[in-house]
Each structure stands twice: as structure tokens, then as C-alpha cells.
From TrEMBL:
The keyword Amino-acid biosynthesis applies. Pfam families: ASL_C2 (PF14698), Lyase_1 (PF00206). It comes from Caulifigura coniformis. This is Argininosuccinate lyase. NCBIfam families: argH. HAMAP family: Arg_succ_lyase (MF_00006). It comes from the Bacteria. Pathway: Amino-acid biosynthesis; L-arginine biosynthesis; L-arginine from L-ornithine and carbamoyl phosphate: step 3/3.
Length: 462
């Protein structure tokens, strides 16, 4: 098979080199975007008179039929033809002869690869955005049912303050919203057309880059051919955003793995999304969540790989860039797989109200509410902190809770200046349920504030 670039060579390419340099084994999935790009290019060539309208039409028809052939798995791929771009072009030439030989006019594989990858990344962004929205909807969807459940909030994995359970769900919704916004922002930079940058310098032919940009739905052609043909920043941005999505998924998975333990006992995962043990009959393991946590490493690794790949490359195109696709596709596939299973786990898990309630008054979750009660009665914050700290220490000694102390006991344990400020109303902030209900600030974890946020999110995601 003669190669598209064999003109100046006197020896055939070594077989080892062909196997070493091929990318068809991983870039065949660009076939659809490659054909989209080539059809737009052919149309522009005919509009500018570089080829005839008839030629453009037969190229478009042949490309469609080649696309169909690839979709059906009927194209035989070989490393001799390197990549998907040369496979499609050589099939076009086999079918159309000289007309097929005109398609690559005013274009190089360098801008073609970049155009394909940008079209692919743009679709990938839109796809992931939809999947992220489904995850957000799954969290919001269980908000009403869980609104009356008070759970501990933690810092340092130590019990801190009580919150309504959906405060957690909406915390994840916020994180994934930021990821969606980052993707939308990245999309703006993806959406500039490389096509017509050719190898690196542009072309002496009267091509119309604005027209191909328009035909492919790009917002504009990129302004510098040298820059855009060497640019893979957008893949670093894309995979870095996916790395954050992966980190957020992993945080969620880790939290629910903990909550699903006998030690916590907060959560029951759906049977269909857990697995058993080959030896221990009682086991029901959170393997899916563990894999979500584990797979985040691949996505984070991909972002790293791409950054190292582009660092120190002189402009413009270098063959190093061929490997960008491996990292990008792996990050994309991995995130898609995780986002596809997540909504069903989120919607199907059950909070174990009784277990949570039986221990919700452990751990002095109401201590901060008691301190704020004192502050409201004129006790300086630092004094209130000290006083409640002493009460907690006393309770630990007596093995009781703050709400078990009588008013007289509380008064006798606080400094003389604070004692007269405390009356029976103190019981209204003691106990986790009261402490959670006492939260009033915007964005806080009380049932009332969370209910407002839930209503907001229902509107935003409708
Ligand atoms: N398959 C290659 C890639 O994905 C295309 C190489 C094009 N350019 C070149 N000068 N060899 O990057």
C-alpha cells in the first residue's frame, strides 16, 4: 500500500515503526467527527472555487457511505495506514480517484486531528454535562423524603454540629454545579476552529476558515495558525475538570462507604448496587462505590499525563501529541462509567432513621448551639466557649449529655457572671434536633434553610 506521504522516501517503512507509530487502534472512534470535519472542508473548498460543486457533492456522499461502513465494522483497519484520518482518505481515493485526491487541499493532518479532537471534546462536554445534571437531580430528588432526618456534620471526622440530611445532598449538588460551570467555560475555548491552520502556517490557497468554522458550529476560527495547531490546552482543561468531577465522586463514595459500615450504620445501599463475598456469607460490600473512588486515580492521572505531554514541546505539531487521545479517552470513558451508575445508588440508598436517631445525641453536637445561646444573652464569645467547654468536660465525667444537666446544675457550673443570664429557655437549644433547628443563617443546615435551598435547586434543575 503506498502511503499518503511516501513521495520522498526510497525505503518502505519498517514494520516495527508502523506498529510503533500507528494510532488507528485508539483513534478509530474519531471517525464520525473526522467525516463531519471533512464534509465541511469539502463544502468550503467548492464555495471558494477550489473544487467544483459536483466534486464536493460526490465527496460528501462517499464520506457518508464510508462513515456507514465504519459504523457497521466493515472497514479493515491496518497500521500501515497509521490513523483514522488516512484510513478514511485512502478509502475515499479508492472510491473517487482524483476527486478524492482533492479533499486534503488547504488542510493538514495537524489541523484535521485538532479539529476532530475539538469536535469530539465538545460533544463529550455536552454528554458529561447531562450526566452531571442527572446526578444532581438524584440528590435533589431525595431531599423531601430526608428533610426530617437530622444527621451529624463532621470536621476531622469528629462529630461537630447537627444538620438536616439533605444539607449533605445539596452540598454535592453545589460541587457538581461548579464542575458543570467549569466545563461550560472550557467549552468556550474548545469551540474555536483549528481547520485551515493547515500544518502550522496556514495556506496560500484562498480557503475560507470562517466558513468552515461556521459550518462546524465553532464560534470563530482560531486567530493564530501556529498556536492552534500546537494547542492541547483545552484537553488539559477538560481532563482537569474531569479530575475534579472524579475527586467529588470519590469524596461522595468514601463518605457513603463509611456511612454504610456497621460502625456508622447510617445507610443501607441497594442490593443491586452491592456485591457479596466468595467466602463470608454475611457480606454485602460497597464495591461499586469503591471502584468509583478507585477509578478517580485514572482520571486524575490523565490530567497529569496531558500536562507532562505538552510541557516543553516546541511549536507547532509534534508526534508526542498523538498520545493525547489515550489519556483523554480514558478520562472521558472512566467518568462516564462512574456518572452512569451514580444516580441509581444515590436514589436507591436508604437512610437508616432509627440507627441515626438512636445515636444523634452522642458527641455533644449541641455544644455550639449552647454557646451561641449564651452569646445571645450577652456573654462574650470566648467566655461562652470556655463555659460550654467546662460543661462538656463535666458531662464526660458524669457520662451524661448537656441536656441531662438541670438548670441549677448548669448555673452552679458556670462563672457567677454568666449564671443569672441562663434560664429555662436553655432547653430549647439542647439536644441535636433543637440545635439543628436553631441554625438560622443563610446557607446553614437547619430544616428550614435547607428546605429553601431545595426549592431553589428544584427550580434550577427543572
Ligand atoms: N495520528 C496522528 C495524531 O493523532 C496524526 C499525525 C499527523 N501529523 C503528522 N505530521 N504526522 O496526532
Amino acid at each position: 500500500m503506498s502511503k499518503a506521504w511516501s513521495g520522498r522516501f526510497s525505503q518502505p517503512t519498517d514494520k516495527l515503526v508502523e506498529a510503533f507509530t500507528e494510532s488507528i487502534s485508539f483513534d478509530a472512534r474519531l471517525a464520525e467527527v473526522d467525516i463531519r470535519g471533512s464534509k465541511a472542508h469539502a463544502q468550503m473548498l467548492s464555495e471558494t472555487g477550489l473544487i467544483s460543486a459536483d466534486e464536493s457533492k460526490s465527496i460528501a456522499a462517499a464520506l457518508d457511505s464510508i462513515g456507514e461502513m465504519i459504523r457497521k465494522g466493515e472497514m479493515k483497519f491496518s497500521s500501515e495506514l497509521e490513523d483514522i484520518h488516512l484510513h478514511i482518505e485512502s478509502e475515499l481515493i479508492r472510491r473517487l480517484g482524483d476527486v478524492g485526491r482533492k479533499l486534503h487541499t488547504g488542510r493538514s493532518r495537524n489541523d484535521q486531528v485538532s479539529t476532530d479532537l475539538k469536535l469530539y471534546t465538545r460533544d463529550a462536554i455536552d454528554h458529561i454535562d447531562q450526566l452531571l445534571e442527572a446526578v444532581q437531580k438524584a440528590f435533589v430528588g431525595r431531599g423531601d423524603a430526608d428533610l426530617d432526618i437530622i444527621v451529624p456534620g463532621y470536621t476531622h471526622l469528629q462529630r461537630a454540629q447537627p444538620v438536616a440530611a439533605p444539607h449533605y445532598w445539596l452540598a454535592y449538588v453545589e460541587k457538581f454545579q461548579r464542575d458543570r460551570e467549569r466545563l461550560a467555560d472550557c467549552r468556550k475555548r474548545v469551540n474555536l476552529s483549528p481547520l485551515g491552520a493547515a500544518a502550522l502556517a496556514g495556506s496560500s490557497l484562498p480557503i475560507n476558515r470562517h466558513r468552515t468554522a461556521e459550518l462546524l458550529g465553532f464560534s470563530a476560527p482560531a486567530a493564530n495558525s501556529l498556536d492552534v495547531s500546537s494547542d492541547r490546552d483545552y484537553l488539559v482543561e477538560f481532563t482537569s475538570t474531569l479530575a475534579l468531577v472524579a475527586a467529588h465522586l470519590s469524596t461522595w463514595a468514601e463518605e457513603w462507604i463509611l456511612w454504610n459500615t456497621t460502625e456508622f450504620g447510617f445507610l443501607r445501599l441497594p442490593d443491586a448496587f452491592t456485591t457479596g463475598s466468595s467466602i463470608m456469607p454475611q457480606k454485602k460490600n460497597p464495591d461499586v462505590l469503591e471502584l468509583i473512588r478507585g477509578k478517580s486515580s485514572r482520571v486524575i492521572g490523565a490530567a497529569q499525563t496531558l500536562l507532562v505531554l505538552i510541557k516543553g514541546l516546541p511549536m507547532a505539531y509534534n508526534r508526542d501529541l498523538q498520545d493525547d487521545k489515550r489519556a483523554m479517552f480514558d478520562a472521558y470513558d472512566t467518568i462516564v462509567a462512574c456518572l452512569e451508575v451514580a444516580p441509581q445508588i444515590i436514589a436507591g440508598a436508604e437512610l437508616r432513621r432509627d440507627v441515626i436517631a438512636s445515636r444523634i445525641d452522642d458527641g455533644f453536637l449541641d455544644a455550639t448551639a449552647l454557646m451561641e445561646y449564651l452569646i445571645k444573652r450577652g456573654v462574650p464569645m470566648r467566655t461562652g466557649h470556655e463555659v460550654v467547654g467546662k460543661l462538656v468536660a463535666e458531662c464526660e465525667q458524669r457520662k451524661c449529655r448537656l441536656k441531662d444537666l438541670t438548670l441549677a446544675e448548669i448555673r452552679s457550673l458556670v462563672p457567677a457572671t454568666a449564671a443569672p443570664l441562663i434560664d429555662e429557655s436553655v432547653s430549647s437549644v439542647l439536644g441535636s434536633a433543637n440545635a439543628a433547628a436553631a441554625l438560622v443563617s443563610y446557607g446553614s443546615g437547619s430544616r428550614e434553610r435547607v428546605k429553601e435551598q431545595l426549592a431553589e435547586w428544584k427550580k434550577r434543575l427543572a
